[in-house]
Structure formats: structure tokens, C-alpha cells
Amino acid sequence: MKLLLIAASNFTGGAQKILINLNDIFNSSGFESRIIFLKGEKNWEGKNFQTLENKNILSKIIELRKIINQFEPDVVISTPTHINIFVIIVRMFTKCKPKLVIRQATHYSYEKKNNVGFTSYYLSLLAAKWLYQKSDKVISLTDSMQKDLIENIINISEKTVVLKNPTINEKEYKSRQNIDLISDRIEIKRLVYIGRLSKQKNIPLLCSVMRNLKDKGCSIHLDIYGQGDYEYLVRNEIEQSNINATIHGFVDKPFENLTSNDLLLLVSKYEGSPNVIIESMYNYIPFIATDCPGGPKDIINESEFGVLSKNDESSIVSNILSITENGYSVDMLKRAKIESLKYNYSSAGQTYIDKVLEIK
Predict the structure, then answer these.
(1) Model-wide pTM > 0.85
(2) Cα–Cα distance, 24 to 30 (Å, whole number)
(3) Is 314 helix (H, G, I), strand (E, B) or coil?
(4) Does residue 219 register a pLDDT over 70?
(5) Helix axes 118-131, 108-115, angle to 10 degrees
(6) Where are the alpha helices (DSSP H) in 52-107?
(7) Which listed CATH number (3.40.50.2000, 3.40.640.10, 1.10.1200.10, 3.40.50.20) goes with 2-166+344-359?
(8) Which residue from 265, 279, 290 is spatially nearest to 343, judged by alpha carbons?
(9) Taking a C-beta distance cutoff of 8 angstroms, is the pair 183, 330 a contact?
């Protein structure tokens, strides 16, 4: 069985990582699987990877159409939103007609409403309502994202399915300290942010939180692992407001630099199924995630597996101060570790394989 996975770019990100994981899982399970990136660095070329050279949309349509006709996949899986729409259109012009599975990586309605103008939002909504119906299966990452899709895009609930991301490859992680040897509360010594420095990740709010902590006399340090368009904003805050933070840029395996004495922060405007939260759960890393549209609430089941905060500055600061003063629950870390195993290769990966075989 042949599978073709299609993503926006090979630049580092959550969606790209999950497709690479899926590609590994499919190939190791006896499928013939390849990934096509519509843009990115050409040095990423490999046996199962290809990056399109053409820059304009028409050239990409022609090139991708050619690839699909030559490879003749049984199933195409695409992500994120704009690539889903692009691939649906391309399939209309291919001789080969593979089954099409589109992976909705974020809250569609919230994502579009916050990234495009009023007119563009409603035009894209109409396009999605028409085009998404032409897919064979739509994957949502959480129950709330599936509900958003059914209410706003796809009125055929049978076409949608909720699948957990195969995020955890247990071979990639070094063994952690024995959490059983730690007392009931663990001391927090550092704040950590891992991810893109972008509008979606609400970097201005992160800066405001650090200013507020400084004003309240809390000198805890923030280490930032990531890069992006909003890096200049953080650097300005460090220089002008003297917030206690260090930017490390992109780091390939940031969790190797973390311990259970770190408190990870996720303050996004909206999310899909944030890998950073699942990886924190697996690695016994305490965290605070804001209750934004998307996955955090579903993943941590309110506050069973991590601390869920209101998405505003005062609530986040209050939670940080409470945890730095009183410590973080070790029982919560243990529960989170067990829950994270639902997102490993063997569990989540096998579910993906089962669903692919169903639509064949």
C-alpha cells in the first residue's frame, strides 16, 4: 500500500514533526510512504522526502499533480489547513484518484478568524465548507476541534475522526530521574518556553507575564528555546525592561536541557495538539498551559495532568507565583507520564494505521 504525506514546509514545527513520525511508522509497518514538502530547504532531500522547487502556486500544482500520477498512492494525507485546501484542488486534476485524508491541526474557525481579514475569513470558510466535503476522511486532534469542524465546516460527523498525534518516540528520550524518589511537591527553579516566537504563540503576553513577575519581586529566570518573527519583541523586553530571560534560539532536542525543577509555559492564542505539552508530560516536566481554543484542555483533562490557566496575564502570573512558592505536585507528574503514553508510536501510530486501512 502506498501513502503520500504532504506538508507546507520542512522548516521545524509541530505539524512537520508529526508527519515525519507518521512516515517512519508507515514505512516500518510495511507500507511504502513518502513525504512531499511544498517549500523548504533542499538539503532535506532523502529517500522518502522531497521538497518542491517551484515557488509560484501554478507551478506547484503542476508539479504535485505529476508526482501523484507517477507515484500512484492509495492514500494521500495532508496538513495543515491551507495545504488541505490546496491538495483537494490538485486531486481534481489528477489521473490517479487516491483516497484523501486531511488532518486539521488547529481550531479551523479560530485560526482563520485571527489570521485573516473579515472578508477573507468568510471566503475561506465558504471554500472549506465546499472543498472539505470532497475529502474521504478528516482527522481532528481533539474532541473540541472535531466539534468545531462539525459546527462550522463539515456537517457529516461520520467523515471526521479524532486521532491522537504519535508524538512520543521513546527511543529518542534519555531516561529521566526516578520520580518516585522525590517528595510530594517539587521545587521550581526556572521557567521555560519551547516553541515558535510567533503571533499564535502569544509572545507579547509571555513578555507581559515576565514584566509583571519582575514588578512583583520575583526574579525567576526564563529560558526560551525557539525562534521566529517575534524574537525582536523578546529581545527588546530583555534590553529595555530588563526582564530575566535568555533566548537560546532553535535547539534540536530541548528537553535534554530540562529537569523536573523547570516550569514550562504555554500561553498560545489557540492550539491544535501541542507536542510540547505531551513531551513535558512524558518527561516529568511541570507546566502551565492556557485554556485557549484547541487541545490543552482536552489533553490535560482540565487540570488532571497539568495546570490549566485562564488566558490572561494576572491568572498566569498568579499560577506561577503559587507554584514557585508551594511547589508542583509530584502525583500530577506521575499521572501525566501515564497519560502521555497514549501518544507514543505503538499506541497512536497503530490507530493511524487502522484508520488508513479502513478507508482503503
Answers:
(1) yes
(2) 10
(3) helix
(4) yes
(5) 150
(6) 57-71, 81-91
(7) 3.40.50.2000
(8) 279
(9) yes
